[in-house]
Amino acid sequence: MSEKCGRNMFKDKTGCTFESSACRAEDARCVLEMYDLFVPKKASQGLPPENAQTRHEWVKNLLERGENFLVWQGGEVVGHAALVPDFISKDAEFLIFVRQPYRGRGLGSVLTKAAVDRAKDLGLELVWLTVESYNFWAIGLYKKYGFIFCEDQGWDRMMLLRF
Question: 20 to 30 A Cα–Cα from 93, which one of 50, 109, 139, 150?
Fold first, then answer.
């Protein structure tokens, strides 16, 4: 990986070049655009929200409260992950979205690694997420980084990563 302007360059599984970076305040518009283009809306547990105003508030909240990580191609955000820490309980919720045409190419791995590394840097003890039980691609990604199921909750399952 090479670095350019705070962004790390990398090649995906198909050989295409992407950039990854921590999200900065000036990137908010690009993150909003990614979710405006995201198909299908409500792809995972009702997220991203279908209503534009609700979606923009949701993104704004993630950007204000969380540690955010982006994957870029050609000046567009094509992947976003957020780690929303609770420093009192020393844990964080993890969310990740990659636009459909870019899935299965390793971008989720780059985003997940960035979030897990940041959680460790922050001194967190636990990262958790919920995933739909039939989302086998996502479950495989999470298991690759050490997440385990904590209980059976039907369609939505909780996974944990302890440090």
Answer: 50
